[in-house]
């Protein structure tokens, strides 16, 4: 890699206009190239649970990893690092240089609609897994861009709300994971949409202090898409690259500002230097005439990468055996066993009533910009049917959102007088992007619908502008949908639907034609949807309960939907949608051997949890979720997960309720007490504590000792199977002169042992765990109490007084 002197020399070869041009995107997903210095465009892709690649095209599939909440549930840095390496390989195959991930924001409350993209409620766990993720990705030559810097825990009014919080809370909680990944060598950081203490994050002093000066971050600060909204203020701050482009507030306006003396040219030079440094790290900088730098991609490679992205093995229609095995391992390792009365693992010869829509159509990912088109999707029904007798019924319907046509469609872009400017065949009625052509006025989606059921079909069209829907030439929808949001997650991914109910006859075929205007700043997202008459009438509920009654065991899969857990919206209830709770309760009464599987990205209420024989959380498990879960249910693998966030028993018990902005402001009044810290402070037990999770064996915590900054714990496997335990160390300081949480996570380690064997866990406690912020990091003299156990609410070992952790 060239040193900074070489990079500075390249910056000096550019005039002001050329420099400023590099600081905005060339397009939605690419930065600008500069042939004069051998710089090709950088290609960006959304993450964090896979590499979609630039754009949205269902024909380009991707490996789908477990959601970040699932990755955090593994408490396994080695596994997360391996998955980071898989992401890097996938990025390289797709021609991606920068992966916009991981998400390091915290689960401040369980109501965050996008929390499935975040690791956990704890800064230490988030930091350690974030570091593993970043190192795994960057070891493969692809830049990670941890996001969203900073305090971006709420989706409501996310573009504009101002987070108000104290410096200590900011430092000890919300900045801590970012500091850790920067110290680990992150090559980029993404600034957030929101403001913090009165400054938009693209203009915030935090981009300079502590990020660039105090932490010595030498990478690139890239904006969230559309987050740069000013010329001078953002340019004077630590913001380096404004995405997307070429539109935006920089460009010619920034040139004018520099020439007018409003922005220093040295600030521009610094931003370009950081861009070139990132380009060199990912192999996008060859140097003048392509000969001055060595060790990077050839010109031919750069040209290929700057063009249409190459396809991964997944994109060519498959997944390698090694990739599938790793994703399957991750799905099992992240599955959390909340409760088990001994029914699990299930016996080999077991007739199973498998209930719920998620058993055949699982949610493998959350909604929003992290979405991708999975290369595969294993279902629990398919996995279990291969080894035992299974009877499946849905039982209940969980959402009413129109379903995009899942069949070949013809997409046409039309100009004046319906002139066809572009046409292509696609695989689904959900079209988020297609060819942009001059003079485009209308996007049209058409498909032949084969009617499978007689009755009222729900047909829908979605988008902005004038929307029409024709059925065999008869117009059933004709409305104008104004652009009513600035949120890109809504505008470009989830536009409003308009529905018509049309009676159709089984065995016929009808032509559906949906059209929408293409207006300025309205995006291209358009949907043609068709749903048959409701598939779950009341008798299906009874049939599901009856199936449970006659089988040896019942497995009920309950799920959230992408209208509940998605970018761009927060949750207003933690209840499961539809009649799923009623179904679980009825099945538990019908069959005492009922196992409930929770397919959600974050906490939901489990009012029947004490009635079920076993409860598992499978999160959004990625494309191998069905196979990984079957491995756990049948005992081929242990459920390896531990909760990365606390699960409440009721909504009234949730400690923090003010998660929505008021008059544009969101105050973090709780300070340091979020998650399990808040539960501990309130002395109200949750349903399941942070860190909770059972395996297929049991453990006895026998003794512990402290040796300076290490806690050594001896424990014994008291069960009949080999097992894995996550040993957690929490600190407390009730006599402190400084306000502190009642307890906080200070370290953790994993041990494995066979039946009757002992194991020693060695947990290193970093000095930061006993430090507090008062304008600088300080350690209060005196002893800290060390609490050791399997979760935040169960710490059977406690070291006090002379045996307690001491400052070092």
What report would you give on this structure?
With 808 residues, the chain is of the alpha/beta class. Among the domains are: 319-399 and 537-564 and 580-661, Glycoside hydrolase family 3 C-terminal domain (Rossmann fold, 3-Layer(aba) Sandwich); 409-531, Jelly Rolls (Sandwich), CATH 2.60.120.260; 697-803, Immunoglobulin-like, CATH 2.60.40. Helices cover 22% and strands 23% of the residues. A six-stranded mixed beta sheet has the order 9-24-23-22-10-11. Strands 13-12-15-20-17-18 form a six-stranded antiparallel beta sheet, with no helix packed on it. Helix 4 runs antiparallel to helix 12 (321-334). The longest helix is centred in the middle third of the chain and has 18 residues, at 265-282.
Give a brief description:
The protein is α/β, with parallel strands linked by helices and 808 residues long. Strands 9-24-23-22-10-11 form a six-stranded mixed beta sheet. A six-stranded antiparallel beta sheet has the order 13-12-15-20-17-18, with no helix packed on it. A four-stranded mixed beta sheet has the order 7-6-4-25, with no helix packed on it. The relative contact order is 0.12.
